[in-house]
Design brief:
Blueprint lengths: L2 E2 L1 H10 L4 E3 L6 E4 L5 H7 L8 E3 L14 H14 L4 E6 L15 E5 L4 H10 L2 E5 L11 H7 L5 E2 L1 H11 L16 E5 L4 E5 L7
Parallel strand pairs: 1-8, 4-6, 5-9
Antiparallel strand pairs: 2-3, 3-7, 4-7, 5-6, 9-10
Length: 208
């Protein structure tokens, strides 16, 4: 598929007609509306035993997809306030609002994340939370360049580089420019056990 405008990416994400890709603070995301998540599994040739991440522009957009006691929510919110936006995925008990397609073999949990990337957050604030993962065939390294994504995933819509640079420049006039370049490293994944956090994957963010 051709590289497209921000408006076209937003429309595709809202309609669920196409997979889209956009940069984040780690690696580029492959994304679609949560109820259309099977298209991600098909494109990546990914096992349904591997759940996807629900990514949002703000943490407030994601809490309704998780279910917990007031005390648990208070702990989750404190952790989010400390480390999000950023390279941290919180795995929480899922609420009935979560489409089963996001985690077919274990719909009782969901991983949520807010990327520290102004363009990604700008897009997500207009699309609503999206099902996401890295852009690659299962078992292969994550793709980082738009050209590589266009070549290996011709069905995926991406930003046109010119428009991306224009949006990036407009958004980063008042934001930290260091957040623009993805680190290439995966996010830390922390799962709520009912009494504390279990680190499933240690990335750049460390919980204390």
């Amino acid at each position: 598929m051709p590289q497209v405008s921000l408006d076209a990416l937003i429309q595709a994400a809202r309609s669920g007609t196409h997979l889209i890709s956009f940069p984040t603070d780690t690696v580029p995301a492959l994304a679609i509306r949560p109820d259309r998540a099977p298209l991600i599994y098909e494109a990546k040739q990914r096992s349904e035993t591997k759940p996807l991440i629900l990514m949002g522009g703000d943490i407030e957009d994601l809490w309704d997809y998780a279910a917990g006691t007031p005390e648990e929510r208070s702990i989750w919110q404190a952790t989010a306030a400390q480390s999000l936006p950023g390279a941290l995925t919180l795995v929480l008990p899922a609420s009935p609002k979560l489409p089963r397609e996001m985690n077919p073999t274990d719909p009782a949990t969901i991983g949520i994340r807010v990327p520290n990337h102004p363009v990604a957050r700008h897009l997500l604030r207009q699309t609503g939370p999206l099902a996401t993962t890295s852009v690659n065939r299962s078992g292969e390294p994550a793709l980082r360049a738009i050209e590589d994504i266009n070549t290996q995933f011709s069905e995926v819509l991406t930003f046109s580089p010119e428009e991306f640079r224009a949006i990036e420049q407009a958004l980063t006039q008042t934001q930290n420019p260091e957040a623009i370049v993805g680190s290439g490293l995966p996010s830390t994944v922390a799962k709520w056990t009912g009494s504390g956090w279990e680190i499933l994957r240690q990335g750049t963010v460390k919980l204390v």
